[in-house]
Amino acid sequence: MELKAIIFDFDGTLAELNLDFGLMKERIVKLSLSRGLSPRASGNIHTLELLSSLASGLPIGQREDFLDQGHSLIREMELQAAANSELFPFTRPLLSRLAGLGVSTAIVTRNLGTAVKRVFPDIEAHVTAFVPREEVERVKPDPAHLFEALKRMGNTPAETLYVGDHPIDVATGKRAGVKTCAVLTGRVGKEEFLDHGPDYILEDCRGVLDILGGSLQRG
């Protein structure tokens, strides 16, 4: 089926990736230790999920305060990173070109919407739908995050491509039944992506125009 819609991740895909996820996880672990918890190895769990998992080890009366502190820490780090981040030079021209081709676009991110808008204040003028984490109950890799974007766009999985810079994006796209595209503008290389089997691997997002049969001058 012809592609009619493209959903993009944000950090590392359309903008510089400056957030130190390792440090963020360390701070969440430190917070949990201050509450008397003894967290297990956290290397394979993402920060939001780690926070929820750690909270489950606290008495019910202490969980809400712990979660509030943890989410506050995450928000602070996201906003600090956003203050030092920029869109890739091709982002706005690419989104404009896609609009001109009649392709619906969306941005789906695990990030806080306020942090994203520090980097891309006019985001909603450039995409059909913008779905940050606070607007869904379950964030990616849960496919519900993509399904919300598809609902707002009015498109089906069969006609949609999802583009991201991390294996979590490939996994999310596969679970949602959309075509998947990995880009190498984040921190993951081609060899690692090959293990996850995306439909496409591109140097950067401009390559989606080749998939669509269009073109955008690089530079």
Description:
- By secondary structure, the protein is α/β, with parallel strands linked by helices.
- The protein has two domains: 5-17 and 86-212, HAD superfamily/HAD-like (Rossmann fold), CATH 3.40.50.1000; 21-83.
- It is 43% helix and 11% strand.
- It has nine helices and six strands, in the order βααααβαβαβαβαβα.
- It has helices spanning 21-34, 47-55, 60-83, 91-100, 113-119, 144-153, 167-176, 190-194, 208-212; strands spanning 5-8, 104-108, 129-131, 160-164, 179-183, 200-202.
- The chain has a six-stranded parallel sheet, with helices on both faces.
- Helix 7 links the parallel strand 4 (160-164) and strand 5 (179-183).
- The two termini are 31 Å apart.
CATH architecture of the largest domain: 3-Layer(aba) Sandwich
Structural class of the helices, strands and pairings? alpha/beta
* Morphology call: elongated
Low-confidence stretches: 215-219
Main beta sheet strand tally, sense and closure: 6 strands, parallel
Could you tell me the number of beta strands? 6
Number of helices, counting only DSSP H or I runs of 4 residues or more? 9
CATH topology of the largest domain: Rossmann fold
Q: What percentage of the residues does DSSP assign to strands (E)?
A: 5-15%
Backbone CA Rg: 18 Å
Separation of the first and last Cα atoms: 31 Å
The helical percent reads 40-55%
Strand order of the largest sheet: 3-2-1-4-5-6
Indicate the CATH class of the largest domain: Alpha Beta
